[in-house]
Amino acid sequence: MATNVDPAPQSTLPYPPIHKDKKFVVLSDWDGTITSRDSNDYMTDNLGFGPEKRRQGNLDILAGKTTFRDAFREMLESVVANGHSFEECKEVLKQNISLDPGFKDFYRYCKEHDIPVVIISSGMAPLIRAVLSKLIGEEEAKEIEIVSNEVDIHPDGKWEIKYRHPTSGYGHDKSQAILPYRELPNPPTVFFFGDGVSDMSAARHADVLYVKAKEGGDNDLAAFCRRENIPHLLFEDFTHALRSVSAIVEGRKTVQEALQEGRA
Q1: Is there a catalytic annotation at residue 70?
Q2: How far is the C-alpha of 200 from the C-alpha of 203, rounded, in Å?
Q3: Which residue among 6, 31, 60, 199 is the active-site one?
């Protein structure tokens, strides 16, 4: 867990109040982490400029050749340029994005143990809310806070992402969702779940970082953590994550013991 951080970027969007007086807090990426595939990647691959250019963009981010903010904007612009409205994209994603098979049980456990679950995403809130409501039901979805970017829809129907932190190279600097907890008199144990380049800003700041392992897929966050020597736990899905988190919550393992295992 890092303590030296850059000055906080100014947020164009409000944050929900942090969860004070909790022993544990779960902050999780949405795309490709809670969902089985990344919705923005799906849009780009099928409605935008395609998987090859998208993948090269991620590799360029890892190599420091471009920022996530700029590469992600290009991805979404390619969808708009091909004539796809925001509402069309919403419907396409509702039909094609599925939930991690263990997330419902994981979320149920967290509710039973008074552990807030907050989605921390570089995607756009209306898309996340629409897909989440379809996957877990509207009532359950309303209970989950979403900290993400937004969307601007223009009179001509074209749309563009509205970044939470437009001056940050991340567009949404996810560390800013973790750091306020560090300032509390009795800070909680923060679990962070992620999978990709959009999560690099949060990687150093969680007490326990869970990185989704993707067999035969893109493991950009795992590659970043290995390169930067950031302790993390690989997990295949939230069924495995639940076993690890519950062991810490119930006192069967310490954070240090869990991290030493390397995999949930």
Answers
A1: no
A2: 5
A3: 31
Q: Is the pTM of this model over 0.90?
A: yes
Residues 6+ apart with CB under 8 A from 193: 26, 27, 28, 29, 33, 34, 210, 212, 235, 241
Start-to-end CA distance of the chain, whole Å, equals 19
So what's the pLDDT on residue 6? 61
**In this predicted structure, what is the pLDDT of residue 41?**
94
* pLDDT at residue 219, rounded to an integer: 81
Catalytic residue of the set 6, 21, 29, 41 = 29
Position 2 scores a pLDDT of 47
Give 156-177 pLDDT, tens digit per residue. Answer: 999 999 999 999 999 999 999 9
148 and 172 Cβ atoms separated by less than 8 Å = yes
Question: Is 29 among the catalytic positions?
Answer: yes
Q: What gap in Å lies between CA 24 and CA 113, rounded to an integer?
A: 9
Residues of the chain with pLDDT under 50: 2-4
